[in-house]
Amino acid sequence: MDSRIWLWVMIICTQIVLTAAVTDPNDVAVLNALKSSWKNLPRKWKGSDPCGRKWEGINCTNSRVTTLDLSNNKGIRAILPPSIQSLKNLTTLILVGCSFRGPIPDSIGSLKQLVFL
Question: Contact 63/20 with Cβ under 8 angstroms?
Fold first, then answer.
């Protein structure tokens, strides 16, 4: 194979791998907003890429957050913000054992993919 073609194939493969590991920017913005407003976050919410860095309780499909499981984080004390509606591909939201206060925001109703709350 011509070395130029081989180089292009390698570049394209690298871009595919890098793109697959990056969380959707809208989902990152929501999760970063949660990080900045919540106390006692999960210990493994480190780095800038929740899907690529495998944040604790976060599962992703095709770079979109599909699961937010906070059940192992009993110390979270916070309000569940209306911005949760921006996690458009969220299918599972687990809040068992958390110390959330206030009402569940009406915006949860706009999560069309949500099947488990």
Answer: yes
State which residues form the domain around 97: 23-110
* Residue spans of beta strands (DSSP E) within the chain: 58-61, 64-69, 77-78, 92-94, 99-100
Task: Let me know if residue 78 belongs to a domain.
Answer: yes
Decide: pTM greater than 0.90: no
Q: How many Å apart are CA 64 and CA 88, to the nearest integer?
A: 8
95: in domain: yes
10 Å Cβ neighbour count for 115?
Answer: 10
Residue matched to tokens 């871009």: 15
CATH value at residue 92:
3.80.10.10
Q: Would you say residue 77 lies in a domain?
A: yes
- 64-98 pLDDT tens trace: 999 999 887 777 778 888 889 999 999 999 988 88
Paired sense of beta strands 64-69 and 92-94, if any:
parallel
Backbone angles phi, psi at 77, to 5 degrees: -125, 115
